[in-house]
Amino acid sequence: MRTREAVSPEKLRGGFYSPEILVKLCLDRVQTLLASRDGLRVLEPTAGDGAFLRGLQAHALGSRVGHVEAIELLDSEATKIDRFLDRSELPGRVLNANVLEWYTAGNTRDYDVVLANPPYVRFQFINDEDKQRAKDLSSELGVVGSSVSNLWIPVFLLALNSLADGGVFSVILPTEFLTGVSASRVRGWLLDNTTDLSIDLFKPGSFPAVLQEVLVLSGRRTSSNQTSTVEFADHNGGSHTWTHVVDRDAKTWTAYLLSPAEVEAYRFAQALKSVDTLGRVARFSVSTVTGANAYFCLSTSEVRAHELEPWALPLLGRSRQARGLFFTGEDHGLLADEDQPSWILSFAANRPDPTKVRKALEYIHRGELLDIHTRYKTRIRTPWYRVPIVSAGDLLLSKRSNEFPRVIANHAKAITTDTIYKGQVLASSGVTANDVTASFHNSLTLLSAEIEGRSFGGGVLELVPSEVSALLIPTSPEMHEHLPRLDATYRESRDGAALIEATDGAIEDLVPELTQDVMDSLRGARDSLLTRRIVRSTSEFYED
Fold first, then answer.
1. Over the stretch 350-391, which tens digit does the pLDDT of each residue have?
2. Could you tell me the sign of the dihedral formed by the alpha carbons of 148, 153, 159, 164, in that order?
3. Which ranges of 271-381 would DSSP assign to H, the alpha helix?
4. In a 3-state reduction of DSSP, which class is residue 205?
5. How does residue 538 score in pLDDT terms, banded at 50, 70 and 90?
6. For 152-162, b where at least 16 C-beta lie within 10 A, e where not — what string?
7. Which residues contact residue 544 at a Cβ distance below 8 angstroms, ignoring those fewer than 6 apart?
8. Cα–Cα distance between 334 and 418 in angstroms, integer?
9. Are 282 and 289 contacting, i.e. CB atoms less than 8 angstroms apart?
10. Within 13 Å, how many C-alpha atoms sit on residue 77's CB side?
11. Which of 175, 170, 160 has its CA nearest to residue 234?
12. pLDDT score at 3
């Protein structure tokens, strides 16, 4: 978590402004939704540098405006916008105010149009007063639990709740709106209170000055109808459109970034008897938490230098250190010979007392000189250096990944830290750890990882245990027969695409319903979501 001191003032207030092309698109969407209405009351809740007002002045909608209410927190920007309004033909005013305070004061909620680019500011940078206002708003609208994860959420909600029945909106939002779990209640509220929803998508990085990947969301406020249909338009290399009937209970809307045909192929595969959720096949859980990996995870030379052999257990610290699909004692030996961190210290009660051994005691004192014992995870332990080692799993699964998550059969019974989940195959599953490992790296399972997982800055994919359990996996007690070939494919090439293609071929042989056409569709869908994730902004602050 970054502190306020490490973040620029612009980022603290979400001060990155709207490109003209997005402003025009928002205005075009509003014009289509409004038809011929005049005398429009327009709300811009976070006016910034006035991009929407300048766009409105130049757009055909400008002549139909009866009043603009522009709210801006920053004095200098509010002054600039006020001067612009004075020179323009737009009737209205600029309020130099906090929009959350403005809303809480009970201002009128009969606007015809909302145009907005809500500020993207994480919860830790929001002051306590605004957090409380956001909580009050979420309680009022029935979206408790989501409004303070990021400032864009309460600003978006208050803006739409300021519309009269039948009023329209077009707003620029982070794509977190689609993919973020924290926005799930917001999406539910939207389905209950709006209609005519459309979402415009753009290739990540299309707008370099906008550090967060964005979309344009448009629609109509309604008190009488609910919607379940959303139209999508992708402006990447031309423009193509599609429509989805969205699942009101969907955890995210990531799947709706795919075409209807791709979603249909995914749902078809999901319904097959030979396809199960990973949680019904194996149980994955968090591995050993040391509180100080650099201190407790050592190379062979470090173990020898401090004479810590009696307390050293085989370790696989990173999934990328596993060369293939299974990790053997020989693999661990090669890792140890390379002098990478390959041992984890266990000062368990059933092992020799390290305080009675000079070199081990010196190492403990070294940790205290480095203040290792004052860290949260260590200071709550007695003694601080006794790490609660989690037993080795039969399966290992990378918690975070770039191209795709990997499952590894842990033949070496190596301990792992919390960068890797440990897994045990359930006796009721009818398959083995080798079967699961051989099956995992296929297009269906990896597509489900893109849909169920969450993406961070730089394109990193993370899976929490509940998301791991939801992954789809084809199961067969014969799949282990393919493991040696698949392992060799990956060891020899380190080519993820070759591994996935080979695994898809094996799955097609064992699960006849997953034909080449179906797998090709799933592969294309997964590639589409992967590409969108990988090429997104690498900003350290703007993380999803």
1. 999 999 999 999 999 999 999 999 999 999 999 999 999 999
2. negative
3. 293-296, 300-305, 329-337, 358-369, 376-379
4. coil
5. very low
6. bbbbbbbbbbb
7. 174, 175, 176, 179, 180, 213, 454, 455, 456, 457, 536
8. 22
9. no
10. 18
11. 175
12. 35
DSSP-based three-state secondary structure for 239: coil
Reported as type and span, the H/E element at residue 489 is helix 483-493
Give kind and range of the element (H or E) at residue 68.
strand 65-72
Q: Which residues pair with 65 in a beta bridge?
A: 40
Contacts of 59 (CB under 8 A, 6+ apart): 24, 27, 31
Q: Which of 133, 98, 128, 125 lies closest to 9 in space, CA to CA?
A: 125
What tokens appear for 45 in the block? 């809740």
pLDDT at 138 over 90: no
Residue 468 identity: V
- Whether residue 311 contacts residue 415, with contact meaning beta carbons closer than 8 Å, is answered with no
Among all chains, which residue has been given the structure tokens 């997104």? 536
Distance separating alpha carbons of residues 349 and 362, to the nearest angstrom: 19
Q: Cβ atoms within 10 A of the Cβ of 524, count?
A: 16
Q: Can you tell me whether residue 177 is helix, strand or coil?
A: helix
* H-run or E-run covering 200: strand 194-201
The candidate with the shortest Cα–Cα distance to 539, out of 5, 8, 4, is 8
Q: What angle do CA 169, 172, 174 make, to 5 degrees?
A: 135
Q: Is 343 helix (H, G, I), strand (E, B) or coil?
A: strand
- Whole-number Å distance between alpha carbons of 505 and 442: 9
Residues 445, 451: Cα–Cα separation, whole Å: 10
Partnered with residue 415 across adjacent β-strands are 315
pTM passes above 0.90:
no
d(CA 486, CA 483): 5
The amino acid at residue 378 is: T
Which amino acid belongs to residue 76? S
Burial of 306 (0-12, 13-18, 19+ CB in 10 A): middle
pLDDT at 107: 73
> For 509-534, what is the mean pLDDT?
93
User: What distance, in Å, lies between the first and last C-alpha atoms of the chain?
Assistant: 13
- Contact assessment for residue 325 and residue 490, using Cβ atoms and an 8 Å cutoff: yes
